[in-house]
Each structure stands twice: as structure tokens, then as C-alpha cells.
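ugh ok fine here u go
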Amino acid sequence: MDKKDIYDHLAKIYLDASNGKKKKSRFSPEIFRNFSLAGIVLAGVFVFILSGSLKKPAPYSHELALFLQPELVKINFNFDPAKKEVYSLNLNGLNVARFRALAFSAKKANYRDNIALRVEFNNAFKESSHVYFRQIPYRWREFKISLLDFKSISDWSDMSSLAFIVEEWNTKEKKGAVYIDNIRLLK
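structure:
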């Protein structure tokens, strides 16, 4: 036997041995099934989260707004000597003509109280107009009102103030508090 015969004989043994082995698949059916179940569960969680966020949009998600007072305001009232309590925002000649509505959140401190809140705009020409919001709730509620509902204001280009007023004759209790938050003008 020469070298060539030995080489051919060894190659034949090696090739026969390697052809006889079954090639193992990297992915067994169990692993594929587990990955499929994990994918379905993740897709379900994603759909659940997405559908939950679509049902409860953020209150300001689609509004273009100018925040006049983004912080919480507390109007304490004690009608023993006083007849009304006022929280006023100085608008410094703000041009409100391009806005369509006023929005804010409000709640009362005492659930037994029955409170009406007076909202009043004043402009530089001494025009004044107000709107009452009856039945301020015990839990936060969003209020929106068109600026057209403030009928006595003819010029919105030079506004001087916005006031929130609690009056003695519009409350059941003589002492209490009203909270107002996110006061803003909407386009």
C-alpha cells in the first residue's frame, strides 16, 4: 500500500462515519413552541397596554393651551365678616382674541357644602362679564367654557384680569375651601 491508498482508505472511513451521523437541529420543537408562546404573551401585553392608553387620554393631550396658573390655587372662605372671597389673576393686557375657551379643574373641600363658583373676566376698557359654575364637586372635575359665553366682553385684545369668586349667598356653609388647578386658555 502506498500513501495514496492509505489516504483514500482513511478518507472513506471518515466520510462514511460523518455521513452516518444525523445532523441535530439547533431548534427543537419544544424551544420553538416556547418562543412562540412568549411572543404571543408579549404581543398580548403590548395590545393591552396600548388599548388602555387609548381609552384614557391625557386631559391635555390634544389641546393647544396657554396656562395662566399651572399651580394649585386654594380659595379659603370664611363669611363671618366678609361677603365674598376672590382669587384674581392679573392678565397684564393679554390678547385673548385668538383663544376659544377657558378651562380649569376644580373641587370643594367639604363634600356636604353646596358651592357655586363665579368666574369673571375684565378688560382694559372696564368691560366685565361673569359666568357661574354651579355644583362644584367634591372630587376633581374639568370645566370648560367658551369665551363667547362671557357676553359683556366685546374686545378680547387687552384683558386685565380673570377672577374666581366664592360668594356668601352661593354657598351652604359659611367656612370652607375651593381648589382650582390648571387654569388655561384653549385655542
